[in-house]
Amino acid sequence: MHEKTYKGIVASPGIVIGRAYVLDRRKVVVAGRRIEDVSVKDEVMRFKKALEVSKSQLEDLKKRMTKGLGKSHIYILETHIMLLEDKMLVDGTVKRIKESLLNAEGALKETIASISLKFDTIEDEYLRDRKHDVEQVGERILRNLVGRKQESLAEIKEEAIIIAHDLAPTDTLVMRKDKILGFATDAGSRTSHTAILARSLGIPAAVGLENITASVKTGDVVILDGIHGVVIIDPDEETFLDYLKKQRKYKYFEQELEKLKTLPATTLDGHIVQLEGNIELPEEATSTVEHGGTGIGLYRTEFLFLNRQSFPTEEEHYNAYRHVAERSAPHEVVVRTLDVGGDKIGSFSEFEKEANPALGLRAIRFCLQKSDVFRVQLRGILRAAVHGNIKMLIPMISGLTEIYETKKLLEEVKAELRSEGKAFHESVPLGVMIEIPSAALIADLLAKEVDFFSVGTNDLIQYTLAIDRQNEHVAYMYEPLDPAVLRLLKYVASAAEAANIPLAMCGEMAGDPLYAAILLGMGFQCLSMNVASIPWVKKVVRSVRMQDAVELASLVMQQPTATAARKTAESFMEERFPDLVAEL
Ligand code: PEP
Ligand code: MG
User: Terminus of the chain with fewer CB atoms < 10 Å: N or C?
Assistant: First the structure.
């Protein structure tokens, strides 16, 4: 048979070769049917019983996890347990049983479908992916309703590459790292919990392969290239040998990178560069240090607002930020205030549906309008800052007025805390995200008002080049090295330097080793990224001289097109880091 190649989404890097184990994760097929009035009570009871069984299964798993590999990821199980008590899910199902006279299975399926639909309208990829958690919890309850047991990954005895339609985070948690070489799934995206877990557990994975389960059988030889999101089934001899070589090289390279973990991110001529991590969950607090970084350059707090009908309380804000600050000390934690709005979170009535959410009532615009919600978060941040090195970052600033208003609110909130006798930090450094071109163009004015800048290239590129960052049809134009983007970056860097304030970048551009030297040369002293990228970027930092980086940045900036700029950057890298380039 001839080899077949599938291309999906990169979830966790690494190359593995082995036998496939196809895990049956077909959804439970159940029939929704009408019931008589008299059966309502029984169906509600059956549903409640299935909830109880699901809860005790998850609690059991949680107990087992306290020791194992997934110890630091227990929060995922807790999320699932919480979902079992979710009002929308529980009350919604009971209501459907009673009012639509549906059996428990039918009512549950309809309820899950209607919750999932709500998630689809969320713009933020990370939050949108939490839909999987709801669906997986739904599947568990359904299985318990129909009394079907699920095959567990914990039972796999021989080394294998797992192929499945989808995997729940609970599957990933019980994986034995010595047996599971890697996994590939039809469904999933880069920010699904399963992908996040795979990265932090170091298990190579590719997801979003659409229909791979239909083409592979247990026992087939499979190559999984998690660096490129590729899966090859029944490889030819030539491909097989080629990948064996690649695998050996990658392992060697990883070991080399591992050695850098405890070494500082210093250029050959002694310039110290701050390499930090971007996190979404409090439980990720220590992941930066584990990857050789020194702090958290972007803590996206949107997660706190998920899966609930009411806004988080001050104590919830305080506890989350305090948790991260204490675990990161003495390193800094840059807490970004709420960046949602438009159709990012649908479950609050405060968020109205908008025609152009990316240009709508988002982030600081929303916060200033709903200052009651914003104040609660500000109070939580100021109080948590007593326990560590916290800085505050405001997203989507487009002009000075928003800074003035934010500062005014901050002073009011401080006065309140003072009069209540609550402990808080009087002078938490205040920074702004530079992610809208208008902010970049008045960087000199903004620099006089704030303590630091953090450039969000994900949005800055979207707004500068007029490309929707979610739209795959224009994805080819999404180019960090576009001359217009580079000019804005340089302008911001010069303004920060003139005002003598720290300059960071926390967009995805900061985590790509190809851009590292250019960014250093432009004047970025701090790069904050997906933690898995830290060793790669550190490798570049430790191998360049600042003078060379400055020259490269200037050369790249002189190029008239993104293509020419990319060529310039690539030849620099090929010359300096032939090994690294081969791995990219
Ligand atoms: C950015 O826009 O670059 C950024 C870091 O913020 P987010 O991706 O959360 O919009
Ligand atoms: Mg942004």
Answer: N
